[in-house]
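Weekly modeling sync, notes
Attendees: AB, CL, MP (scribe)

Item 1: holo prediction request
CL wants a bound-state model with magnesium ion before deciding which constructs to order. AB pointed out that an apo prediction alone won't tell us much about the pocket. Agreed to run with the ligand included and paste results into these notes for async review.

Input as submitted:
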Amino acid sequence: MDGGRPTAPIAAVAVDVFTIPTDAPESDGTLEWDSTTMVLVRIDAAGRRGLGYTYADSATATLIRDKLALLLVGRDAWSINARWIDMTRAIRNLGRPGICSMAISALDTALWDLKAKLLGVALVDLLGAARESIVAYGSGGFTSYSLERLRDQLGGWAREGLTAVKMKVGRDPHADIQRVGAARAAIGDAKLFVDANGAYTREQALEQAERFAEDDVRWLEEPVSSDDLEGLRLLRDTRPAGMAIAAGEYGYDLFYFRRMLEAGAVDAIQADATRCGGVTGFMDAAALADAFGMPLSSHCAPALHVALCSAARRAVHLEYFHDHVRIESMLFDGAPRPRDGRLYPDRSRPGLGLELREKDAQRYRA
Ligand SMILES: [Mg+2]
């Protein structure tokens, strides 16, 4: 304490990179991959350690180590907004979207985790809970999967009690119709979401939306490129009833979300705290969603978003993404598992409630 005001100079910032192979080759409408890289940061102050992470290229770790960490060490850990301003100023000439925002996201998240630990409360309680838990929708159904694996994965989630599941489309519009039909048949009463990752032309997307409606698809994510706000708006204006147009995962700053919302491009906005500026950036996006009366859904990283979506007033669900579920349960003690189709933040553990499994993580160190 300093005259009643708490102070906690940051003693150290550590960054680690882990690359984890996928359990099978994976693809969506526009990308193929066989591994996922997590950039993990830990920030020490006042005898406590905050943890944050992003899914990003290892170049993100270089930026943290060589530039952003130097801005943090010795500064006050409590003053998160001051640290955020320092970091966003420092990357002015490097460009805000992409690597820079992912680096800031990991560090900001670690600062929030640290602050909650210094106070001895769960992050959701530091933010102020809006609800006890959040609906988790299963997400996977990669275009690289056989029909059998697609049915097994999506049907498995539905049998475990998840009330909605999402699959990838967009690699082959014709095959998509068959794949969506197979998924629909495998999931009983669960809601079916699809994600094209921007693969369709506007014309294809209009046509596919009509076909998907026959299988009661409720959520059409990035039917066209999320940079085509006019195209998204066109889809939104003509979509079949009951089908939401969604996008937002490439939002690296608040201005991106504002542009998307002002364009009337979506029925629900997606935000990813590992990209959009950490806990600070996510809660800013949540406030913006509130200002537009827009449902908010989190993208990927469920172990991080469970706290944020339990606090954000407009949050409707969280993406329980296959790759990240697997990685977070491998690398972290405390990664949440769904109960009755929902994820519950563990409010008995301070901060995010996540602890790195050092020994298990070693073999994936890049
Ligand atoms: Mg997506």
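Recorded for review: The chain has a mean pLDDT of 97.
Action items: CL to compare against the apo run; MP to circulate these notes.
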